[in-house]
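Practice problem: predict the structure.
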Amino acid sequence: MIEISATAAHKIRSLMAKQGISDGGLRVGVKGGGCSGLSYTFSWEREPRLGDEVFDGPEGAKIFVDRKSYLFLKGTMLDYDTALLTQGFVFNNPNAKATCGCGSSFGA
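Answer:
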C-alpha cells in the first residue's frame, strides 16, 4: 500500500486541474540514478497502464505505480511539503536505507 496525505492529494488535484486533466492521476516511479542510487520519477497519466498498482487518496487523488517501482515504494507515505524553500512532494519511504540531502534519491 502507498498512502497519500491530504496535503499531497490536494496538490495532485490542483496540479491536474492546471494541466486540464480531469481524470487520471500522478504516475510515481523509481529509476536508477541520483546521488543515492535510485531516483523518484513523476508524470501525469490519464489512466493506469496494464499491471499498475493504483492507490486512491483524499479528494479523489490517484497515483499509479508500475510493479517494479512498487517493490521499492511499498509502505510509503506520499506527502507534500508546503514550506517556502523546500516546497514539493516528499516520500516517507520505509524501504530507503539511505537518502540524499535533497530527498529526491535514495538507496535501498
